[in-house]
Specification:
Elements (H helix, E strand, L loop, with lengths): L2 H16 L4 E2 H7 L6 H11 L5 E6 L2 E6 L19 H13 L2 E2 H8 L5 H9 L3 E6 L7 E5 L1 H6 L11 H6 L6 H14 L10 H5 L3 H5 L8 H25 L5
Antiparallel strand pairs: 1-3, 2-3, 4-6, 5-6
Helix pairs in contact: 1-3, 4-6, 4-12, 9-12
Length: 251
């Protein structure tokens, strides 16, 4: 191989490596000295890279370097992208954990709002819930329970290890109900029609603590959020108290 041809091969190799997309022979010819044997040079490069980690491949009318097929699997990487659960998904998960086996309709009754399909889908993708069977009632609705992956993620040995009423109170969850209820009441009063203001005077005077906190400001949507949270905590408390009476203690 002459020195000139060797330099042409190096130049062609550099052009292909530096290109961000496959290149046609016509485009390559414009980058090489006039009269260069582009097809012949390309075939030489194909032979030179036949046993390398990258191969020179013809993709239709274009040419490009690509990873050797036998090395593709070793170069694959997987990135775990954490997904934050929505408030609805967290509440639904808590209800299923304390009320399992539970149907979708029962979850909606406790939360007080309709349950979107995406909420259950996100919990299914996380492998934290699974269908257990069907309730022997009209319509035979599917019942849902938590999985072993749920217990493993939260460091629980079994369902009986879920925090009870006293532990929830110690964490401030149940104690927060009165404050949240106040915010919800104030938000409802804030959006009430003007003509109803006089008729509600007696009720507002009897609210006491609610009037005291009214000026702190409740954003739009706090009433719905308060109702959702209060419904979830009420359901959790009722279930735990019922189970405490039956025997298994979790508090």
């Amino acid at each position: 191989m002459s020195e000139d041809r060797f330099q042409l091969l190096r130049l062609l190799e550099a052009i292909l490596f530096a290109s961000g997309e496959p290149m046609t022979e016509k485009t390559l010819a414009t980058r090489l000295p006039e009269g260069a044997d582009v097809p012949g040079l390309l075939q030489e490069l194909v032979g030179l890279y036949a046993n390398r980690g990258v191969h020179l491949l013809q993709l239709g009318e274009r040419w490009a370097f690509r990873t050797a097929p036998d090395l593709g699997e070793r170069l694959q990487t997987e990135n775990v992208v954490p997904r934050k659960l929505s408030r609805a998904a967290i509440e639904t998960l808590a209800i299923i954990a304390y009320h399992q086996p539970v149907t979708r309709a029962e979850v909606e009754e406790i939360r007080g709002v309709a349950l979107s399909r995406g909420t259950l889908d996100s919990l299914l993708e996380a492998n934290w819930i699974r269908p257990k069977g069907r309730r022997q009632t009209p319509g035979r609705p599917v019942t849902w329970v938590t999985t072993d992956a749920f217990l493993d993620h939260f460091g629980l040995e079994s369902r009986e290890a879920l925090p009870g009423v006293e532990e929830l109170k110690a964490a401030g969850l149940l104690d927060a109900r009165s404050a949240i209820s106040t915010l919800g009441a104030q938000a409802m009063a804030a959006v009430a029609p003007p003509e109803d203001a006089e008729g509600d005077t007696e009720g507002e005077e009897g609210d006491g603590e609610a009037d005291h906190h009214g000026d702190e400001g409740a954003g739009p949507g706090d009433d719905e959020a308060a109702a959702d949270f209060e419904s979830m905590i009420a359901g959790v408390e009722a279930t735990v108290e019922e189970e405490d009476e039956e025997g298994p203690g979790k508090g």
